Amino acid sequence: MVDWRWLKCTGMAVLVGFLSACAHSPSAPVVNSVPGEVQGVVEYPAESDRKSHDRQTQSESNTSVQDAYERPTAPPVEQPSVAPSVAPKGAVKSLYDRARHAQSESRWSDAIALAERGLRINRKQSELYLILSESYLAQGNEDQARAFAEQGMRYTEKRSAVGTRLQSIISKNE
Amino acid sequence: MTDNRTSKKTKSPKRSSQSRQSTRRKRGSKKTKHYGKALAWRALFWGSGVLLLVSAVFFLVLDHVVREKFDGKKWQLAARVYARPLELYTGALVSVESLRAELNALTYRAVNNVRKPGHMSIRRNEVELFTRAHTVAGEQVQGHHVRIRFSGQQITDLRTVSNGGFLGNGVEEIDLLSLEPQEIGAIYPSSGEDRILVKLEDVPSLLGETLIAVEDRNFAHHFGLSPKSIARAFFANVKAGEVVQGGSTLTQQLVKNFYLSNERHIWRKVVEAFMTLSLEMHYSKADILETYINEVYLGQSGSRAIHGFALASQYYFRKPLQALGEEEIALLVGLVKGASYYNPWRNPERAKKRRNVVLGVMAETGLISQAGLEQLKSEPLGVVDKAESHHAYPAFMDVVKAQLRRDYQDDDLQSEGLQIYTTLAPSVQWNAEKSLSSRLESLESGYKIPSESLQAAAIITAVGSGEILAVVGDRNTRFEGFNRALNSQRPIGSLVKPAVYLAALESEDYTLASLISDGPIEVESKNGDIWAPQNFTRIDHGDVPLYKALSYSYNQATARLGMDVGMRQVVGVLDRLGLDRHVAPLPSVALGAVSLSPLEVSTLYHTLANDGVYTPLRAIRSVHRAGGERLKRYPLASQVRFHDTDVALIDYALQTTAHQGTAKSIYQVLPKNFAVAGKTGTTNEHRDSWFAGYTGNHLGVVWVGKDDNGKTPLTGATGALRIWRDIFSRLPTAPIDNHHRDIEFHWVDASTGAASAEHCRGAVMLPFKPGSAPTQSASCDFIKNPVKVWWRNLWGS
């Protein structure tokens, strides 16, 4: 004999759990993957979908802003965690290594150009800001060295090795 | 008497004198004959001497002319402008389609079996590619045979291919692969002559050998003039009764093209002969051949004359010389005889016939096999579509030229052969052009707006680097005229509002949860005028939290906030965002009564997208001499101008604009969980429709309106936003990264701004600077039935 009582209870528990989870789903700004990692990207919708969207937009544009305001005030965000500091990897690592090599040979302009290339791939890579900052400092451009150090500090922990070095550049050039 | 005497006296002497005279005459005539002969000889001698001297002087003068020009700067060289080289790496946001378009533009050939540089094979999510070796910004880049795997619009794997193409296994992962940059334009010498210099060692040997075989087989052995060729041409011309054949050697042709005019005159022939001898006397055959290869006229593009094989290769095939096939070399060599007559676009049949004649010569001289001749003769001409061959991006080039003119004289730009590496991303540019043009057409038909009456401009920028990736300045994207992206200054409407809210948040008196009245407001100016702005919908919303006032673009709340914070502070924020013009701190500025170009708006919004760090926008990366030596870099520059937490709060409100506010139609084409931020802008009577929006790595600013400042039925959301949406739905881009170190999230009651909790009705979670969250709690209407909330969230009821 099948024990329907247990099956019903289990089914109910799953349903309640599912509904509870749905109730707390965020609808606005979301936390994305860690910089430098493979990230989700936009899929281009099919032409037919776009046409239907366009029609919708037309009608929605006639909706008053007041109507929009009255929409349910669901929690728009999920509490994001602090971004972990990610060491350079892949293409950025390759450029980072080349920039460090250029620095070791006092080829400051080359180091700057390579760090910039790396930042075009990941603009939040603090190690590359450190290279920019050090290279500009070596060239005697203290303002730019400090500016990049300040910018780099935004993308690393103050107590990390990179953070400490960036902070030291900021302090010395205040 | 005297006379008689005299006559007597003189008679006999007269006779004797006559006889003497006769003798003398005889002798004289002998002498005169002798003297005349001597004189003639002397004259001949002296004449020859003088002629020789004159000839020698003449030769020396010509010799000087020949050497001076040959040893000096031979040509004025155009500055060449290049797009950014596309960089491929694992994780790069590149779609198969955008890669295909870029490879097509670089004339990569789709083949089944990728065997040599310039070949590609594209399958659904996989591309096999043999990149060409090239030099970019003075750096040598090797060619690679690689396989690239994609997932969606992202590269997931990039590695070299051993052999066997798709069937073979990748052998080595590659960190970074660069394609050669596409040439996107040039700044030409005033002479109209254009050429790309090439060294003889870089010229394919087949090209040099074919040229010699067709034009001057005895080139290696003659001293500049070839009597045999001249005699042959002479008889041919006499027989035909007109000039049908030239007997000129390559050296003579070079002299004719390089030093002399086109006139046909005996005197010019003499000069040509002297100069030819001079050239052959001083320079090696290799020098002469190299100069010829760079000098020869091979086509005409409007006022621009195509000189030299390297440029002709790019012009006709959009390929470097080294990548030319045998039949392509044959066509170029064939054009030497008459570039206009054998123009492959205008006279394809004639050009093909001529090419095949050259192929015949190649086979006859053993340069190609007889067996392959018929196959090559059947090949199509293979020239690129002329319409797309050059100068495709006038609006972007305007930005480049404006930036160059700050650092270079026109003369340097037109003559030094500079290489200018820009930031243009061709695939992004094509996307923006297509989106803008087609959307304007659909807006005009959808809103019954007279056809072609709307205009638009768009700028796409890379966030962080501040590099301008695409510029569209006219709906006719090839139009080289008024560039609205740069030069059209229009009121920006609500695009200015983030500056008002940023000033408020910086003051520490406000948080995103602070309530501000959206009731009617009147401001009296010094001269007694009353300014009473109204909401777009003419509806007052009472007290609203700051984040909502910004995301729904409430005018009355914003005007009040601007007055409360102080318009000087607001204008100060605009300045720090990067505004480079004087704006009077008038109340109306809070609602956008300030006229800016799309480029200026891009600068302001780039600072927001870049976490509060100002970076001047750039269209050029570096400028190099013709030889590759770097002249100038345009480096990334930055200034931290705002606290990142203040900008993060504005960023949050602008993301809410995209999710719930005036720009919510974005999510009709983007996935719901894809974080973007943006702001719509509409000016009085809908004369201007604006949208500025950004993702994690791209910023797009779009303007739509009429050139005569006429009314339109378009708001920011129904006009500019739709173009932005079209662009960004195709653009491989990443969402905004919402990690912020110094931000706390708290539940607050949306109607009171007081602290609330997760299950309370009307509670929203908002970001705050540490310690700024409300401490006073609102009463909580606990939601007992989560199903209802879930249901409402899902259906919006």
Molecular structure report:
- The complex is a heterodimer of chains A (174) and B (797).
- Chain A has a domain at 90-172: Tetratricopeptide repeat domain (Serine Threonine Protein Phosphatase 5, Tetratricopeptide repeat).
- Helix content of chain A is 61%, strand content 0%.
- Chain A has eight helices and no strands.
- Chain A starts with a helix and ends with a helix.
- Residues 16-84 of chain A have low confidence and may be disordered.
- Chain B is elongated and about 150 Å long.
- Chain B has a six-stranded mixed β-sheet with strand order 3-4-5-8-9-10, with helices on one face. Chain B has a five-stranded mixed β-sheet with strand order 12-1-16-26-27.
- In chain B, helix 5 packs across helix 6 (266-282), helix 5 (250-258) packs across helix 7 (285-295) and helix 14 (426-446) runs antiparallel to helix 22.
- Chain B has six domains: 1-72; 85-183, Penicillin-binding protein 1b domain (Penicillin-binding protein 1b fold), CATH 3.30.2060.10; 186-388, Biosynthetic peptidoglycan transglycosylase-like (Penicillin binding protein transpeptidase fold, Orthogonal Bundle), CATH 1.10.3810; 393-487 and 595-642 and 671-741, Beta-lactamase (3-Layer(aba) Sandwich), CATH 3.40.710.10; 493-593, DD-peptidase/beta-lactamase superfamily (Beta-lactamase); 744-795, no CATH class.
- Classes of the chains: A mainly alpha (174), B alpha+beta (797).
- Chains A and B meet through helix 1, helix 2, helix 3, helix 4 and helix 5 of A and strand 28, helix 21, helix 22, strand 33 and helix 23 of B.
Strand order of the largest sheet of chain B: 3-4-5-8-9-10
- CATH fold topology of the largest domain in chain B: Beta-lactamase
What is the terminal-to-terminal distance of chain A?
Answer: 81 Å
- Gross geometry of chain A: globular
What does this entry show, briefly?
By secondary structure, chain A is mostly helical. In chain A, 61% of the residues lie in helices and 0% in strands. With 797 residues, chain B is an alpha+beta fold.
